[in-house]
Amino acid sequence: MTSLLNRMKDASGIGYTLNADIDDDELSAEGFELFYRVLQEAVTNVIRHSGATHVKVSLHKEEDRLVMRIRDNGAASSIDAIEEGFGLQVMKSRLSERGGKLSLAIAHPSGLEIQAFIPCTGQDKKEPEQEKEDCYAETGSH
Ligand SMILES: Nc1ncnc2c1ncn2[C@@H]1O[C@H](COP(=O)(O)OP(=O)(O)OP(=O)(O)O)[C@@H](O)[C@H]1O
Ligand SMILES: [Mg+2]
After folding, report:
1. How far does residue 96's CA lie from ligand 1's centre (Å)?
2. Where does residue 87 rank: exposed (0-12), middle (13-18), buried (19+ CB within 10 A)?
3. 3-class SS at 114?
4. CA-based diameter of the chain, in Å?
5. Does the beta carbon of 76 lie inside 6 Å of ligand 1?
6. Residue 32 and residue 22 in contact, taking contact as beta carbons nearer than 8 Å
7. What is the C-alpha separation between 25 and 138, in angstroms, rounded?
8. Residue 59's beta-bridge partner residues?
9. Beta carbon of 73 within 6 Å of any ligand 1 atom
10. What is the CA radius of gyration of the chain?
11. Separation of first and last alpha carbons in the chain
């Protein structure tokens, strides 16, 4: 994720902060890939549409879900003005396939804030008794 954000910075001059508050074993390779793709599209959108100078990315755990928040300080000032294209639709459908979701909001004073949620226990988990702490944790090596 850092290398993706560094590429953004080098290519566009947009600065970033990344705050990751989850342990490696809480995010499986699959969960990571999901978040990574959301971040990739969000960064592309920030560069193409926002006029932002800074992006804040955070990853944290919230009860039974993992949350990635991406907030830019660009020009977006109304959610109603955002017409969903292919990029946002793909993000949404990828997340909902995994029992997650995407939400959009306007940051203060302006800018877009995207939040991607992934449940800690995947719908396809075979062992429901597995500890809640094990957000998407792989049983094998990681
Ligand atoms: N960070 C942002 N700041 C301001 N507007 C945004 C931002 N991200 C998205 N938008 C608005 O939302 C629209 C939809 O974004 P979406 O990614 O779905 O489509 P797109 O980027 O236009 O095309 P593509 O299908 O190639 O991704 C954009 O056209 C833009 O108007
Ligand atoms: Mg896009």
Report:
1. 19
2. middle
3. strand
4. 47
5. yes
6. no
7. 8
8. 20, 68
9. no
10. 15
11. 17
83 lines ligand 1 (CB under 6 A): yes
Tokens coding 111: 């800018």
Which residues does 43 contact at the CB level (< 8 Å), separation at least 6?
Answer: 4, 5, 8, 55, 70
Helix (H, G, I), strand (E, B) or coil at 103: strand
CA 9 from centroid of its chain's CA atoms:
18
Least confident among 6-15, 114-123, 125-134: 125-134
Q: Which two tokens stand for residue 31?
A: 């969960």
In sequence order, what are the residues at sequence separation of 6 or more whose Cβ sits closer than 8 angstroms to the Cβ of residue 49? 74, 76
Q: Is 4 in the pocket of ligand 1 (CB under 6 A)?
A: no
Q: What is the pLDDT of residues 65-109, one digit of tens each?
A: 999 999 999 999 999 999 999 999 999 999 999 999 999 999 999
Least confident segment among 36-40, 72-76, 110-114, 134-138: 134-138
Domain coordinates of the chain in residue numbers?
2-119
Confirm if 16 and 10 have CB atoms less than 8 A apart.
no
CATH number of 2-119: 3.30.565.10
